[in-house]
Amino acid sequence: MVYNFNAGPSILPTEVFEEAAVAVLNYDNSGLSILEYGHRTPAFEGIMQEARQLIKELMHLDDNHEVLFLHGGASTQFMQVPMNLLDVKDIAAYTDTGVWAAKAIKEAKLFGKPEVVCSSKEKGYTFLPKDFAVPNDCKYLHITTNNTIYGTQWQKIPVTSNSLIADMSSDILSRELDFNAFDLIYAGAQKNIGAAGVTIVVVNKNILGKIKRNIPTMMDYRNHIAEGSMLNTPPVFAVYTCMLTLRWLKKLGGVKAIEKINNEKAALLYAEIDRNNLFTGIVEKEDRSKMNVTFVMNDKNKEAAFLQFANDNNIIGIKGHRSAGGFRASLYNAMPLSSVKLLVDLMKEFERNN
Amino acid sequence: MVYNFNAGPSILPTEVFEEAAVAVLNYDNSGLSILEYGHRTPAFEGIMQEARQLIKELMHLDDNHEVLFLHGGASTQFMQVPMNLLDVKDIAAYTDTGVWAAKAIKEAKLFGKPEVVCSSKEKGYTFLPKDFAVPNDCKYLHITTNNTIYGTQWQKIPVTSNSLIADMSSDILSRELDFNAFDLIYAGAQKNIGAAGVTIVVVNKNILGKIKRNIPTMMDYRNHIAEGSMLNTPPVFAVYTCMLTLRWLKKLGGVKAIEKINNEKAALLYAEIDRNNLFTGIVEKEDRSKMNVTFVMNDKNKEAAFLQFANDNNIIGIKGHRSAGGFRASLYNAMPLSSVKLLVDLMKEFERNN
Q1: Which of A26, A267, A303, B37 has minimal CB crowding within 10 Å?
Q2: Of B25, B79, B235, the CB nearest to A21
Q3: A255-353: what fold?
Q4: How confident is the model at residue B149 (pLDDT cuts 50, 70, 90)?
Q5: The complex's ipTM?
């Protein structure tokens, strides 16, 4: 047994691995691998439809909100969002809360006028700015709900009268939010939803078609909506793993149920970080992420030894990102509480031995 | 046993399904699923490197040619190619040989001045134009080497003094070509190379960086080259299936060996189409594709019965595309000769019974 705390691609539910492995050999007793299924077959059309429907259901989306499974990762959304929503002179407000947010700002400059309304860069992105104003005339406010590298997460989503757009790559479906309050949500699947290689986009269709730019066919959300996420060959297997994971989440009780578990996992680990004299959390307490828990050792010289100790006990993926240092334990939806307990036990044991 | 003649996503070698299924449960005895492997792990970096290296080797590419595994499908390349290579007033020559070629032309109009140098549209794309001139001052000539829907394939690649660019989605690695003669080749993986969800791009790096446009980060080939196809999270599992299929092809003897088998398969099926009085090939003989064999029944009223007869014998995926009608049998690399023999036997049997 290996305990995988990787930041993404990352752990998925065991039953998803098991069902997916069967499907790679023989999908639904068809005698065919899921990998050789044409995307226009009734079987795959059913998978795509169920995956989209499950997102709608789990997020309680209204009829204005369309669900898409696209190629390209969240990094492609950094350009696709402004390409669809901004004319060259349009202003959009961006919150600079991490490397990924900064990348989104960079792409927006190619299509409109992004205005950085707040930044925590000078403090190494270790907190989330609370006091900032959003210009009335901006087309949207863009936030990153969870910052994977530093381990910050908006515990209260900023309230705005503007259109709200969020990169939710690392905390989508992990907690209850009013998802209808967002006009556009995007997320790479590979943390909470499925295998790498597919991106979930939830978009209020009423915000589309308001600009003058000629949008390339594959970049125009309206085309993907019209074709039910089958404008071209979708990443069949990645979508299938999403559907399996979404089924698992629904069976478990949906977002409300997983939020309770996620809260427990995060509380357990943060409590140990705060109690244990060897460790210190990296970010402001009120902005702590429940998905990516970042911490350092007070004595940096002991970090390698703890990493080794964890590895020796089959815990992997807890080395911090190079720009944050220390450790990062990612507690995505599929991570069981028992694995977090094991990590906490090892932290205690390491303290006793040191 | 089911015999899958789907046009794509389509059959892959049996051993690829088997190895991939094992890896979904437990990759390389690591105790982890390949789906939960971080893309920055040495294991996945090795997979990506091996996949790129195998393409280089199998295509005998020189050092100017870089191999990329990208998101987005060939449909994204329709825009990405002109976005990287054309300034707004630049001319590019396009051959209009099918629906996919026409889509490439449409996207090129957003970035430069595509000039359609030949078209077979008026004859339902059932042949490939031979006599056409390419303007000297054009930046490149774009061809679709194999037209999946109609079943045409350039048996002789057009010779040009211009930069040659090809959509090889449905015949890449199926036959020996001087791949270094192309400045850019792109192909969705899901026919000859692996699972759907990844696109192979081979590009001569010397043609890049010659235009004035600001290219979005994810669209600029140079960024993907610099990052070794890891500019963002790649479609991990799809890349893995490519590596497995490329290993299989190398073990089999490479492109030369598979071409011999592909020639045999196509010859067998076309011979039966020409012999059997019930069937007729759709396209000009000299332009017949060895990947997608299209044919109709002389008596259209019998088509449904033959389709049913084939299905009853576990042959699936031979219904023709709606814009071509009749039948299409796709004989991609992984399709064994024995399956083609079975199809031919059924055609003979159907003839005897009718």
Answers
A1: A267
A2: B25
A3: Aspartate Aminotransferase, domain 1 (3.90.1150)
A4: very high
A5: 0.98
Identified catalytic residue from B90, B139, B191, B319: B191
Q: Do B72 and A218 touch (CB under 8 A)?
A: yes
Cα four-point dihedral sign A58, A59, A60, A64: negative
CA distance A273 to A153: 18
Please count the residues of chain B. Answer: 354
In this complex, how many residue pairs, one in chain A and one in chain B, have their CB atoms less than 8 Å apart?
196
Predicted TM-score of the model (pTM): 0.98
Q: For a pLDDT cut of 90, what percent of chain B falls above it?
A: 99
- Retrieve residue A136's tokens: 């009335």
pLDDT in tens, B66-76: 999 999 999 99
Looking at chain A from residue 306 to 345, which residues have their Cβ under 8 Å from any Cβ of chain B? 314, 316-317
CA distance B55 to B64: 14
CB A168 within 8 A of CB A332: no
Architecture of domain A14-252: 3-Layer(aba) Sandwich (3.40)
Contacts made by residues B343-349, CB under 8 angstroms, sequence distance 24+: B343/B3, B343/B5, B343/B269, B343/B310, B343/B315, B343/B318, B344/B268, B344/B269, B344/B272, B346/B309, B346/B310, B346/B313, B346/B315, B347/B272, B347/B273, B347/B276, B347/B278, B347/B279, B347/B306, B348/B272, B348/B276, B349/B309
Average pLDDT of every residue of chain B: 97
Assign a CATH topology to domain B254-353: Aspartate Aminotransferase, domain 1 (3.90.1150)
Contact B325, B273 (CB under 8 A): no
